[in-house]
Batch of 4 targets.
Target 1
Amino acid sequence: MEIKNTNNQEIDVWRKKDVIRQLFAPTLTNDEFMFFMGLGKSMQANPFKREIWAIKYDKNAPASIFLARDFYRKVAQSQPDYKVHRSFAVYENDQFKIKNGVPDHEFTLKNRGKLIGAYAELIKKDIDQSFVLYVDFQEYNTGRSNWKKMPATMISKVAEAQVLRMAYQNLFSGTHSEDEQDTIENAFKPASNEYKQEPPVLEAQAEIVPDNEPLKSTLFDQPKNESEENYHEKIEQFLLAEFSNEEEMGDFLEKLTGFPDKKTGEIVPGKRDFSKLSNRHAQVTWHKIKKEFGLE
């Protein structure tokens, strides 16, 4: 994805191939990673903004590439022939049918009964027939996480993502939406975990601390190759991808690397220049970034 800074210089977040691979696609084969990069670059999807990511659940199965639901929306809505799309959950007491490819849905807000599925419809300009797709709740429900907390929202998101893929197959072919990730993970549960991405050993809850204060003991339990990583470079790449000018970078970093004074309780401003961070402070800062931006 191309980002322009205040000097009108173009910044390509995909230019650091090794960094992208380590953060977002560490278990992919070479061919899978090249496809992942090619797809991301061609669609201008920014992995640092969690618009695209890839996971290989099993060594004998192709890697799964995921796109954020909001990214599907953004790309579809930018197409010249896009007009409108919508999605709704369907309950057993609703009056719902699809006749001649057109959904007819009536419901009240009381006694809708059991959730049974969702549908989505997308209409393009100058095309009489809309794109309509219905998904069954039982086929996608994992009974955990957000599927347990807000099932209607989740199944509606699945329907929405699928109709966007169906309407723009040339753009989204070979991808999955974020809302399908739980379902795909469940399908690979019996498979070996050898090729499944696991959370890093480093404790993501570690707090930012001043350079003269010892880090939590869990930070010293890392493998050697983890401690040898260039955290300053990782932070730099993230900042370049996420912010358009040095002022924004400095404000973000200053807030992130600040810490509370033990005596007064007031927040001591952090550093505005990542190169001024000590190695261990850069390490904690990077893992704080990963946690807050979902880069784990």
Target 2
Amino acid sequence: MHILAATIDRFNLRRFFSGEGPQSQPIFLHHRKVFILPTRHGISFAFLLLLMLVGSINYSNSLGYMLTFLLASLSVVAILFTYQNLLNLKVSLGQPEAVYAGNKLTIPFYIENNQHDRFSIHISHNKSDRLEVDLPSSQHFKFVYTLTTHQRGYHKLPRFSFSTTFPLGLFKAWSYVEVDKHFLVYPKPAGIRQLPEQSLYKSTLTGDQGSGSDDFAGQRKYHPGDSLRQVNWKALAKEQGLLTKQFGGDRYEELWLDWSHTQGLGLEQRLSQLALWIIEAERANISYGLRMPNQDIPPSHDEGHKQQCMKTLAFFNQ
């Protein structure tokens, strides 16, 4: 029974069309994972050889026989070269970084070629997006595959195919590469850039080191959204550039980005607006919090806080 089951699995047609599913890395393209079939040009070439053979038989033409068998021999050799162009490659996929919807996702590919030179290998996940690479022998390579994102959320990496028609284009060899990795897409920032006016001032002994309004604490480059009252106009007149005055004191400002501030918009538009406000609050160096229907994220201000807020928006209602 075990032998029968193994035999059925060996000739499972599902592997032929969709591969073996997610695999552990690195993925080794051994002989059971590489498939080969004639291309349209290969089928046309075989039909031409058949016509040449029929003509040679009909006219007893020895030169016709010789040319027909020579071309047939070349096509048989092409099968071996095409198949070996993929065989025994080692492939790994890196973890792509999160992007905003509509932006390009960059997926790192790490390929190890421990054998002969390989040429015209195509990496793709659909018929339109395709990356073509050449792999010199005994080297490690890193390639970046770009994928356009459309929908926010947590998505599984697609199944990729490695294929080649080298050297004559008469046969196509291919193999599937699929791993259990996901990537994160944040909502596309869009909407009104101006931050909502609802803010909360809190007392503190140390001040906010630059966002208060009591004691002068220095200046920095102007960021869009800064109050014009804090612009150092004298420095601008001296051609020192556009600078914003910073103050410290006994209070600091907290901004709550509230789901209720986006009433009247559709779901995705509300998430896009909040994403834009998060970016603007970070740019303005303001401590901000995110208030969603079932979750509140306390105010803070750093890259980790920004990513936490963006993840909350990306996963909302999913």
Target 3
Amino acid sequence: MARQQGFSYVIAMFLVAILTVLSVRAIENTLMRERRDKEKELLVVGQTYTNAIRAYYLNTPGFAKHYPPDLQSLLQDQRTTRLSRPLRKLYRDPITGSQEWGLIESPDGGLMGVYSLSLRQPVKVDGFPSEMAQFVKATKYQDWKFVYEPS
């Protein structure tokens, strides 16, 4: 009888250890899923900015095309008599959570692209669409450059 007195305690400690390991795994999976969701959102937002810059560039009146001078210009393009809005709102960077973006300037002046200011390493390293093929070699989110270059 004396040898069986601590058996329930050992089982309880074993169950606590198993629950701890399962909880840590669940938290790790949740954090990874959140990072992947933020990456997907970054790709969508970056492509949205690229499309807005393209629309602004292509809708330039006359023959000489111009990039927008800043992100604010994408909200309301007043260069013609017909008002256009290449972008509905300025999006935040999903990775940093900030409204601040890295800006890629055109050699002729104006804004031709954006990128995240995050120095974290991306989870996604392959399987990008063809227009984002250069992202495969990226070592940090800052290397994901969303640029419109006319062909």
Target 4
Amino acid sequence: MQAARPRRQQSLAGAPGAGFYVTVMVFVLGLLLAGTRPISNSSLADGFAVFVLVTAGWVLSLIFHEFSHAYLAWRGGDRSIPAKGYLSLDPRTYADPILSIAFPLLVLVLGGIGLPGGAVWINRRAIPSRFVNSLVSIAGPLTNLALATVCLMPLSSGVVSTVEHPVLAAGLGFLGTLQVIAFVINILPIPGLDGYSTLEPFLPRQVRQALVPAQRWGFFVLAGLYFYVPAFNDILWDTVISLTSTFGVERSDVSEGYQLFRFWST
């Protein structure tokens, strides 16, 4: 009986928390609001529906992004993960709720881009394999790419039509594009981002040590590049639009979703 107790505690630690269920319910509400909006009736109501859908959907993507890191770290050898609550899918349990949830959400509302959040705390020393450590890091961006597919496939397949469900199509198109942005940004080899962490296990020890201080500033450097370096902004959006176009999503559809999302500025 005593030997089974740690496994039971680990299972309970992995049960979804209340914060996850609340976020899912808000997301479903956003889907219903956007899916039932009449064509070009009220821009304010349309914008509110898209705002609820995209905001809740973005928070869910942050949850799944961090969960994928934590789950693979746990499977790879870090047995401290369940006790930290990372497998609960509850955003309140993350190591840094400001960097993981609040800061990306603020940037989304102000700038309309999917800036990645701060990572969960992982004991990398407990994961002996360099390959698994790398896989733990790349899991987050790959999760965003998978979520982009989930959001954009209904549009490209015609299940959600821009003619019959224009508000829902605009919301899903913008939310899917945010996932593509998060994927592209996250795979950049900048210290503090998942792209660098994916490469880090294979870098010389001296290089890793020299770049440790830079990791805490990666997110803020990235935000500065986006808002104050037009060339970076252009390259980022060209790459994102190229990827979203593979799903048959037009740039005008994404722009419509962005404008509806920022309904207070119109």
